[in-house]
Amino acid sequence: MQIKKFIVIPLLLVMLASSCSLLPIQKVSPEVEKELYKTKLMLETEVYSKQQLLDKLVIESDLSVPECQYVVDNCGADWKEMAYKELLPYIRGNIHESRKYYIDRLTYKKFTQSEIDYALNKSGFDWNEEAKLYAQRISSEKSEIEVRDYLRNENFTEDNIEYAMENCGIDWNEQAFLFMSNYRHHLDPRSQYYVSKEEFIKIMVEEHKFTQEQAEYGINKILS
Predict the structure, then answer these.
(1) Do 26 and 74 form a contact (C-beta atoms < 8 A)?
(2) pTM, rounded to two decimals
(3) Which of 23, 81, 84, 147 lies 20 to 30 Å from 116 when distance is taken between CA atoms?
(4) Using a CB cutoff of 8 Å and minimum separation of 24, what contacts does 61-68 make?
(5) Longest dimension (CA), the chain
(6) CATH topology of domain 171-224
(7) DSSP string of 206-221, one letter each residue
(8) Helix axes 99-108 and 79-92, enclosed angle (nearest 10)
(9) Are 144 and 179 in contact (CB under 8 A)?
(10) What is the pLDDT of residues 136-183, one digit of tens each?
(11) Would you list the domain boundaries of the chain?
């Protein structure tokens, strides 16, 4: 029985030592503590995503990657709120951009999709109004169909687009005229680029998506 006791006790010690080696290290170096303190101070005034902060620490600090990860994990940042803070200058400055613009910006800053969704939802942007203002800004010399396509490409919903079209106050006849005005010399028979009235209208309808009536209004105003 005494022999078994001497065998079991060393075995238990080995198992205990092995299990302890798997436990996370609780004590960190002074260098890590210093970097953690600096990072917390920095995040009081600057905006970073989790990945962006990790990248910065890996490049700029003398810490190892695991140590940098420790700093990021323990800095106390709310990454969803960080994404929202990235939008604050636009919100406070009453700056109007498309939904895609904000998504692209937050993606570039390496925020996650859930963080981006949180920021956009909290932003309070009226996407109907944003779509309307964006349409007004880009509508010059474009047809309604072209403007609709632009809005879709900027991640506005169909409801946003319908609201914009109904409330933007854009005169599509005048947009057809403005577009054609840039090419009025093509209507001069003496020009080497001469295009007949009928051909010009066809181009406006088929390539630039103006209606027949809008194209006729534009060209008749030019020729009047």
Answers:
(1) no
(2) 0.73
(3) 147
(4) 61/35, 62/31, 63/31, 63/32, 63/35, 67/28, 67/29, 67/31, 67/32, 67/35, 68/35
(5) 118
(6) Arc Repressor Mutant, subunit A (1.10.10)
(7) HTT---HHHHHHHHHH
(8) 130
(9) no
(10) 999 999 999 999 999 999 999 999 999 999 999 999 999 999 998 888
(11) 32-123, 126-169, 171-224
